[in-house]
């Protein structure tokens, strides 16, 4: 709400600031990612509800690209449609992921009404999964006690899917920070449990007495850093690819960012006026353009620049001076954001990026980069270039090579994030 300071009303406060950098919540000011949102609305959900097979989705990308927020927006959309949705299951490093998934599947089972089932098979399955939620992979694998943990999870998720099919609802499971599941056995069990539920087909009788099989209305989204591509793809290979389609996020187009700020420029952003009514905060076109230019397509930096511009003044208009003043206070944070991305790169990949940045844009060919790095043949860097393109989304191979990750390029080739 607006606050009074003597006779002056502070229009922009911490309470009504619509920008939210660094949180895994859905930002109020949303930009881009239309392809992924449309994929849920027009492909994943309708196919699953129709009983057609459809792979799970793996969404990877460097920190700050909005992976978690994207899937939380998809989940929020699903909840509004009446679907059954897990909370965001973040997998901390060093923890047992099967425990978190078991607890979430049990919650879905409650939603599906399975907890009150009188079937002994269902009761035994619930009992087994409750044990998994407590003990995880350390659960004694005594066949007399029941199925192995991952198989029990898959079976219960299938039962949830059957209930959802009857209720004409979709089920959405979201696991985040997947790069933290580093144990090969644990990752294998987790992916098999989820993949088996995705590929399960349930026999049904169609009108007219025709028997057929249909996939269950279960959708699984996995999000994490690009490292997960190595853990899952290299170790699970074709099986993982058959069950999950992977998207590597890249920075958002400037046009999409500009469109997201259009309401501030054309209509003003509605906020309480402190007297029980509402008023509006406007943004000059120059201020909007400055925010877009500073963030280089990074959702985190976009939210950060917007947040600080909001705090830089109290009037009804956000100006370009407000943007510059606010940004000056977060130059260090913006630098650290890009430095962390570079620090995570293996030595050869980081060296590749640094050498590429030092070249004139027209000279950024694989041959020239290889020569500058001391390699006799460009083919010696082929795998490195491919990883930086298809797995990390930092460069784009072409003639010449270009940067996809524009904040990394700006950091290595200009004085950014400092404003001149």
Describe it for me?
The protein has 420 residues and is of the alpha/beta class. The chain has 3 domains: 93 residues, no CATH class; 215 residues, Rossmann fold; 76 residues. Helix content is 50%, strand content 15%. Strands 3, 4, 5, 6, 9 and 10 form a 6-stranded parallel beta sheet that branches. It has a 3-stranded mixed beta sheet with strand order 11-12-13. Helix 5 runs parallel beside helix 6, helix 8 runs antiparallel to helix 9 and helix 9 crosses helix 10. It is globular, with a radius of gyration of 25 Å. The two termini are 35 Å apart.
What is the correct CATH architecture of the largest domain? 3-Layer(aba) Sandwich
Rg of Cα set: 25 Å
Largest sheet descriptor: 6 strands, parallel
Helix content: 40-55%
Q: What's the total number of strands?
A: 15
Distance between the termini: 35 Å
Indicate the CATH class of the largest domain.
Alpha Beta
- Count of distinct structural domains: 3
Number of H- or I-type helical stretches:
16
How would you classify the helix and strand content by structural class?
A: alpha/beta
The CATH superfamily of the largest domain is known as P-loop containing nucleotide triphosphate hydrolases
Strand residue content? 5-15%
**What name is given to the CATH topology of the largest domain?**
Rossmann fold
Stretches with pLDDT under 50, minimum 5 residues: 1-8
Shape estimate? globular
Overall average residue pLDDT: 90
In oligomeric terms, what are we looking at? Answer: single chain
